[in-house]
């Protein structure tokens, strides 16, 4: 979420009155866009910013809920993502089900080059093949039970 945020720019904000931020005078009614893509790669904030190093968060109080401005994958304040709680609460369940039910084979070599736009996407998306590792009738029976 730090290196590859879905939206590189947060929803636009507007200064309701004149203010000063980090020594800059901001006139009233100025529109601002927060570049979370650049914040996630800033070497003054992150040591080795281009490396995937999840253990950097083990002894850190930084979280993704928008209170720490070093990491804002869902935005912050009134303009934060309304689906944040749903996404964070369900991602573990969905990933566990995918790993439990399917065997995965990688079809192409990994490349993490990105295309910047309104959203950030991989330039060469990973191609994988999923094959069932549990019996199909077990999945159908479980789906039938869930409906009733």
Automatic annotation (TrEMBL):
GO terms for molecular function: heme binding; iron ion binding; monooxygenase activity; oxidoreductase activity, acting on paired donors, with incorporation or reduction of molecular oxygen. Keywords: Heme, Iron, Metal-binding, Monooxygenase, Oxidoreductase. This is Cytochrome P450. Heme binds at residue 81. Its cofactor is heme. Coiled coil: none annotated. It comes from Adiantum capillus-veneris. Belongs to the cytochrome P450 family. PROSITE patterns: CYTOCHROME_P450 (PS00086).
């Amino acid at each position: 979420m730090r290196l590859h945020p879905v939206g590189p720019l947060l929803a636009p904000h507007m200064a309701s009155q004149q203010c000063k931020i980090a020594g800059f005078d901001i006139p009233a009614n100025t529109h601002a866009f927060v570049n979370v893509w650049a914040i996630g790669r800033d070497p003054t904030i992150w040591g080795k910013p281009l490396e995937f190093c999840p253990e950097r968060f083990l002894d850190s109080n930084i979280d993704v809920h928008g209170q720490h401005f070093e990491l804002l994958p869902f935005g912050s304040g009134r303009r934060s993502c309304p689906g944040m709680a749903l996404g964070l609460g369900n991602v573990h369940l969905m990933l566990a089900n995918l790993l439990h039910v399917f065997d995965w084979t990688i079809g192409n070599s990994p490349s993490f080059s990105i295309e910047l736009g309104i959203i950030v996407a991989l330039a060469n998306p990973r191609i994988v093949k999923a094959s069932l590792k549990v019996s199909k009738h077990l999945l159908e029976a479980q789906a039938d039970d869930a409906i009733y």
